[in-house]
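Q: what sequence does this backbone want?
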């Protein structure tokens, strides 16, 4: 008899249990999602940027994410990923081989196409959401390209630009550098003109970007340099016509945010990786700080109750470390100099595992502030590493950001949060 009453009681409670479950699942749903990717940024670089700009006890905007996880980054064919395989894993949830974008591991670099993979951009557009991609590199470069293109050769940027124009599921907003791949060539296509016919507004300077009226703009392409955009450290001196990553992010949110069905936006701090390849610690740090500013702009601009915010890196570049001994109030360029105390007194406090740094100076103690970035293994450029990277999140769906994850699970988290 007791079992019978317990059975009846369970049936009576079932509707309430289902209601509680449904309520919890509803909280996991987001209207929109923004994914920040700091190309090549490892945890030690975050530490260095924080100390350099805010001091050891300071906080960056990326420090404010309440949810964190550790992410594995290997590709299908290598323990050390490149940006193509990593971006493909994040954009599609499927591992592929190095140097391939948007195709599965049956693709052979420069030789054979693989199976075309469905991207988070494809799913978002099909669901009626607006989509944007923002980068400080060329918009046809590996990371942004993996979200809309499918090719066995990540370096085929002219073909990648053509795929953007031809794909009916293309993003609505595309901002960054690389204008040279979109201009008319002898006997070639005028891709910019084709996009204008398809309803895109085109801008090529900070001034023009500021003039964009988001209320009247549905589709926007901004190409602010012939090649990559300038490093943040050089932006005002080299080309003051270029907007910051934060300004591009703000405009993208304004244009995409009008859609009542929501949006997906990917924002890449792309030149962090290039600075790290060159063992250029100051440009690495200042581009991370520019990336952090863009994160802060988004945090202030969106409704975090309806928007999933994620921040990660595709891989770590250079094997960067912060070591030695220094007073707790160390800040600014003092961090980039010699260790003033401890076992490695007189040696640099920031170092790289590989790269051109060592080739610029003799082995041994550095003698001046001029030598800021020492590398252990001499090479023309530093290598990517196999170390795990961070994933941080806030907003609906970020509950799944915890523990150790594979980089393919970033796609799964976004897809589930947007219910697409």
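A:
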């Amino acid at each position: 008899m007791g079992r019978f009453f317990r059975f009846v009681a369970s049936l009576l409670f079932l509707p309430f249990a289902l209601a509680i479950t449904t309520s919890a699942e509803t909280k996991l749903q987001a209207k929109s999602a923004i994914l920040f990717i700091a190309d090549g940024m490892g945890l030690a670089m975050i530490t260095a940027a924080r100390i350099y700009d805010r001091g050891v006890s300071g906080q960056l905007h990326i420090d404010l994410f309440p949810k964190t996880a550790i992410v594995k980054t290997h590709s299908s064919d290598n323990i050390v990923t490149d940006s193509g395989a990593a971006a493909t894993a994040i954009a599609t949830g499927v591992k592929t081989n190095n140097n391939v974008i948007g195709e599965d591991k049956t693709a052979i670099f420069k030789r054979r196409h693989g199976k075309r993979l469905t991207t988070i951009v494809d799913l978002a557009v099909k669901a009626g959401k607006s989509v944007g991609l923002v980068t400080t590199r060329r918009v046809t470069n590996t990371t942004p390209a993996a979200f809309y293109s499918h090719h066995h050769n990540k370096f085929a940027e002219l073909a990648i630009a053509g795929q953007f124009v031809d794909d009916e599921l293309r993003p609505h907003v595309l901002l960054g550098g690389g204008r040279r791949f979109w201009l008319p060539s002898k006997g070639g296509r005028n891709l910019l003109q084709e996009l204008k016919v398809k309803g895109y507004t085109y801008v090529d300077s900070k001034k023009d970007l500021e003039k964009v009226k988001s209320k009247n703009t549905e589709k926007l392409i901004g190409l602010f340099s012939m090649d990559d955009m300038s490093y943040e450290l050089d932006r005002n001196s080299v080309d003051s016509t270029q907007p910051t990553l934060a300004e591009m992010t703000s405009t993208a949110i304004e244009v995409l945010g009008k859609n009542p069905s929501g949006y997906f936006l990917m924002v890449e701090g792309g030149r962090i990786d290039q600075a790290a390849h060159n063992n250029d610690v100051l440009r690495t740090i200042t581009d991370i700080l520019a990336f952090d500013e863009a994160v802060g702009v988004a945090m202030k601009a969106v409704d975090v109750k309806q928007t999933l915010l994620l921040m990660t890196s595709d891989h770590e570049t250079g094997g960067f470390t912060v070591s030695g001994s220094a007073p707790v109030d160390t800040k600014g360029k003092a961090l980039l100099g010699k260790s003033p105390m401890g076992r490695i007194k007189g040696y640099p406090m920031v170092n790289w595992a590989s790269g051109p740094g060592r080739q610029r100076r003799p082995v041994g103690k550095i003698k001046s502030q001029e030598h800021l970035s020492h590398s252990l293994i001499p090479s023309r450029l530093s290598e990517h590493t196999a170390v795990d990277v961070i994933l941080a999140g806030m907003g609906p769906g970020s509950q799944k950001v915890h523990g150790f994850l594979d980089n393919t699970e970033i796609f799964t988290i976004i897809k589930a949060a947007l219910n697409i």
